[in-house]
Design goal:
Elements lengths: L1 H25 L5 H8 L3 H7 L3 H23 L5 H12 L4 H9 L5 H23 L10 H11 L7 H19 L7 H5 L1
Helix pairs in contact: 1-2, 4-5, 4-7, 5-7, 5-9, 8-9
C-alpha cells in the first residue's frame, strides 16, 4: 500500500513537472499526450490525477503558490522580504507565461481560483505589513495591490524571446520598486495632491 501511495505521489509530481515544461515551451493548449510522454505515464494515469486540463493548470498554479510560500518562509522576518519576493516573481514569471495567460481569463468566483488568491494574499499580507512598519514601503499599499503588481510584471511577457522577457520583467520590477517606496516629504496622498 505504501509503495502504491509513493508511486502515485511520484506520478503526480512527474506529471506537474512535465506539464510545466511542455506548457512553457508549447503553450497552455499543447496536447496532453505530450505531457504524458514527458512524464512517462499513460493518459489514464494523467486523468486519475487531473480530470481535465483545467485541474492540471490549477494544480500548477497551486504548486507555484507553495513555492512562493516556501520562499517567504526562507526570508523569515526580513523587513525587505516583500521586495525580495516580488523580485522572485519577476525572475520566474517568463517561465510561466502560459499559466499567467490562463490565470487572466479564469472565473474569479470559482472556488479553486478564490483558494489560490486567498493563499497568495495570506503569503504577502504579513510581508507588506512588515515593510510598511519598517518604513520601506508606502503606507497605502494593500494586499490586493500585489495582484496588480504581478500583472504588471506579466506585461513583460510581450518580449519575443525568453531572454527578452526575463530582461523586461526585471526592468519592470526595478521601475515598480520605485513606486512602492515611501515618498520623501509625505505620504502618497500628499504627493498626489
Amino acid at each position: 500500500m505504501t509503495k502504491l501511495r509513493k508511486d502515485a505521489e511520484e506520478n503526480h509530481s512527474d506529471i506537474l513537472d512535465a506539464a510545466d515544461i511542455i506548457f512553457a515551451s508549447q503553450g497552455i493548449t499543447a496536447p496532453l499526450d505530450l505531457v504524458c510522454r514527458k512524464a512517462g505515464v499513460g493518459r489514464a494515469t494523467l486523468y486519475r490525477h487531473f480530470p481535465d486540463r483545467h485541474h492540471l493548470i490549477v494544480a500548477l498554479l497551486e504548486r507555484g503558490i507553495e513555492e512562493t510560500a516556501a520562499k517567504a518562509d526562507e526570508l523569515g522576518e526580513r523587513d525587505d522580504a516583500f521586495f525580495v519576493l516580488l523580485r522572485f516573481h519577476a525572475e520566474r514569471i517568463h517561465a510561466r507565461s502560459s499559466l499567467i495567460d490562463y490565470w487572466r481569463v479564469l472565473d474569479r468566483t470559482a472556488p479553486e481560483v478564490r483558494r489560490v488568491r486567498e493563499r497568495f494574499h495570506q503569503i504577502f499580507s504579513p510581508l507588506i505589513f512588515r515593510a510598511v512598519e519598517a518604513g520601506a514601503c508606502r503606507p497605502d499599499i494593500q494586499v490586493d495591490d500585489v495582484t496588480l503588481l504581478v500583472s504588471m510584471l506579466g506585461s513583460a511577457l510581450r518580449g519575443r524571446t525568453a531572454d527578452e522577457q526575463a530582461r523586461l520583467s526585471l526592468r519592470a520590477f526595478e521601475l515598480m520598486i520605485e513606486g512602492l517606496r515611501p515618498r520623501a516629504g509625505g505620504g502618497a496622498r500628499e504627493a498626489a495632491a
